[in-house]
Design a protein that fits this description.
The chain is mainly alpha-helical. It folds into three domains: about 1-85, no CATH class; about 95-200, no CATH class; about 225-395, hpI Integrase, Chain A (Orthogonal Bundle). Helices cover about 45% and strands about 5% of the residues. It contains 16 helices and six strands. The chain has helices at about 25-30, 40-65, 95-105, 110-125, 135-145, 165-170, 180-200, 225-235, 240-250, 255-260, 300-305, 320-335, 345-355, 360-365, 375-385, 390-395, and strands at about 10, 15-20, 30-35, 265, 275, 290-295. Strand 1 and strand 2 (about 15-20) form a beta hairpin. It starts with 7 loop residues before the first strand and ends in a 7-residue tail after the last helix.
Length: about 400
């Protein structure tokens, strides 16, 4: 992955700057501002490009104001005094990982950042004191092989919270992590090293030619049966009972439900209450198709009176709390069927829609899926405005909770 600097490019080991002037000013200023940055070092070039950019903006401002601008005047870039020589690959893995994680902490939500921090932390535990330029493809392969040996419950126990990669491998018991989790862990470390290349700290990412060999199926969730739904509702759990009913009657994902705020509820007169699933201050969305308006089942209307009048509807809940609490309820009922998780509530809703004769692409618009109506679904999505709110209300009301 090559280093990129806006409006600059590398030619014969020297960075050159080129930025076109606006078309309306080219008759006065010429086609573009061109300047050699007189360095092959990416860090120095980035600093000098910023100086030339400032000069470019100054020239544009003067030209628009009608002031005289001398086209022939070269832009002088003063080299920094005692500029340090930066040797690529000298900084340690641990030092760069700290910088990378600080940046990612501002870009990712908590759950996503926690996963990235764990993966990069495993890499740091193995190679943290090494210069990043010394990491070879052999070390990358060794890391991938060790990740494949990690136990299924790696990182979940407080006893192993401070363990590095080698100690975690030694402490692993039972089944190993899935191929999907292995790929995610290796990919996140690869992204870290791609960032190091982009920042000019590394010339080549040693993980670019390494892959996880393990094969595995995508995890399949089971749909709850009506009997299982009735048993869960009969527990009337004070912690996640309301969220459980919300998801059963709307098909929402756990993150969509616990991320609802009062402003996401929309009143549509005789059509009742709708929930607007959209990015907000609490959570983002999984896909573009996930943004949608869902009619709230009439059974949910009485619940709204007991929820907060402003801010989050479920302020004390997170996806982690919901899924762990559901696991406890499942154990209480003795539900040991493989694939039964909280996400199974969503599959139950889709199943009820299917049994009620609702067309697949109608259900997809409610649960936020890309419709697989036909191989021409892309064309269909362009020309169709989607189903009406009346149709959505009719579909949702067809789903009824089993008797408790």
């Amino acid at each position: 992955m090559s280093v990129r600097i806006q409006y600059a490019y590398l030619k014969q080991q020297t960075w050159l700057y080129r930025r076109n002037y606006p078309k309306e000013l080219q008759a006065v200023l010429g086609q573009a501002m061109k300047q050699s940055l007189k360095t092959g070092d990416a860090r120095v070039a980035r600093a000098r490009a910023a100086e030339v950019n400032a000069k470019y903006e100054e020239v544009i401002t003067k030209a628009k104001a009608g002031q005289v601008v001398e086209k022939s005047s070269p832009v002088v870039v003063t080299p920094p005094v005692f500029s340090p020589v930066v040797i690529v690959g000298r900084r340690t893995v641990k030092e760069l990982a700290r910088l990378y994680l600080n940046r990612r902490s501002n870009e990712l939500q908590h759950g996503g950042f926690k996963s990235v921090r764990f993966s990069v932390g495993l890499f740091v535990s193995a190679y943290g004191s090494r210069a990043i330029g010394s990491i070879s493809r052999e070390e990358a392969l060794a890391f991938v092989r060790k990740v494949a040996l990690l136990g299924r419950h790696t990182g979940k126990s407080w006893r192993t919270r401070d363990y590095g990669l080698d100690r975690l491998v030694e402490a692993s018991r039972g089944g190993t992590i899935s191929a999907r989790t292995q790929r995610r862990t290796v990919s996140q470390v690869g992204h870290f090293l791609d960032w190091a290349v982009y920042e000019g700290e590394l010339t080549v990412n040693p993980f670019s030619t390494v892959r996880v060999e393990a094969k595995g199926r995508n995890r399949s969730y089971a749909a709850l049966t009506d009997g299982e739904v009735g048993g869960l509702l009969a527990l009337n759990d004070p912690r996640i009972g309301d969220v459980l009913v919300f998801c059963l009657l709307t098909g929402m994902r756990a993150g969509e439900a616990v991320g609802l705020v009062r402003d996401d509820l929309v009143w549509k007169g005789n059509l009742g209450w709708f929930a607007w699933i959209r990015p907000n201050e609490v959570r983002s969305l999984k896909t573009d198709a996930a943004e949608r308006l869902i009619p709230l089942h009439s059974t949910l209307t009485p619940l709204l009176a007991n929820l907060p009048r402003e801010g989050r509807l479920f302020p004390d809940l997170s996806v982690s709390i919901v899924t762990k609490r559901f696991a406890s309820l499942r154990a209480t009922l003795g539900l040991s069927r493989p694939g039964v998780v909280f996400h199974s509530t969503r599959k139950w809703f889709v199943t009820q829609c299917e049994r009620a004769g609702v067309p697949e692409h109608f259900t997809a618009s409610i649960v936020g899926h890309q419709s697989a109506r036909s191989e021409n679904r892309m064309t269909y999505g362009i020309y169709s405005a989607g189903i009406s709110d009346d149709q959505k209300r009719e579909i949702v009301e067809k789903v009824g909770l089993p008797c408790r």
